[in-house]
Amino acid sequence: MIRLRARLAQALDYVWGGWGAAASLLLLVALWEAGHAAYGTLVLPSPRETFAALWQMTLAGKVWPAVVETSRNALAGFLLGVVVGGVLGALAGLSDMMRRLLAPIATLMLGIPAIAWVVLSLLWFGGSGLAVVFTVLVTSAPIVFASAAEGVRSLDGALRRMARAFRVPRHVLVTDVYLPHMLSYLFPAIATALALSWKVAVMTELLSGAGGIGDGLATARVQVDTVKAMAWILVVVALLLAVEYLLLEPLRRRLLTWRRDLPGAEARDMPGI
Which of 6, 97, 183, 229 is most exposed by smallest CB count within 10 Å? Predict the structure, then answer.
C-alpha cells in the first residue's frame, strides 16, 4: 500500500510538473509579446514573427544541419568531460595525495571564464569543431570532478570495511557500492554540465565561425536581423528543454525510484514517519 501511494504521488508530481512548465512557458510568451509591443521588431520581434522566420529557415534546410553539428560537438565535449572529471574525481576521493594534487587544478579551471577558454581554443585549434569540443570539455570536467570526489569521500567507511572483511571483489565493490552512491552526487553535476555544454558550444561557434547554431547567430548579427537571431535562440531553448524533459527528467525519476527502493526508504518518505 505504501509503495502504491508512493507511485501515485510520483505520477501526480510528474503531471503537475508538466502543467507548471507549460504555465511558465505561456507566461514567458506573454511577457515576450508585451516587450515586442513596447519596443518594436528591431529590438524584440514578436513570437509570431520569430516562429515564422524559424519555419522559413527550417524549410530552407538551415536548422537541422546546424542542430546536428552543435549537438555532436556539445555531446562529444560533454562525454569527454564526464569521463575525465569522473575518473579523476574518483581518484581524488580515494587518495588524499591525488586530492591535494588535483583539487587546486580543478578550482583554477573553474575560476577561468568560459570566454577565456574560447579564445585559447581558437588560438590552438582555429575555427574547427575541435575548438568547440575542447571548450566544452574543459568547462564541464571540473564540475563533474568536484561531485565525483565528494561522492567517493562521503561513502560510509563502515560499509567499505565490511566489503573488505567479506573479500568482495573489486569490480563488485565499484559497481554495487561506489557507483550507486556516487550517482546521487554525480547526477546534479552531470545535469548542470550537460546544460552548460550546449551554451558553451553555441558561444564557441558564434566566435569561431565553426558552423552550427552559433554560426547562424553570428550571421544574423552581421546582417542586423533580430528576427533570425531570435529564431536561432528559440532553437537553443528548444534543445535545452528537450534535453531537460526527455533525457534528464526520466533519469532523475529513475534515480529517485532507485533511492526509494532502498530498505526503509518508503517509510522515511512518508509524512509523519
Answer: 97
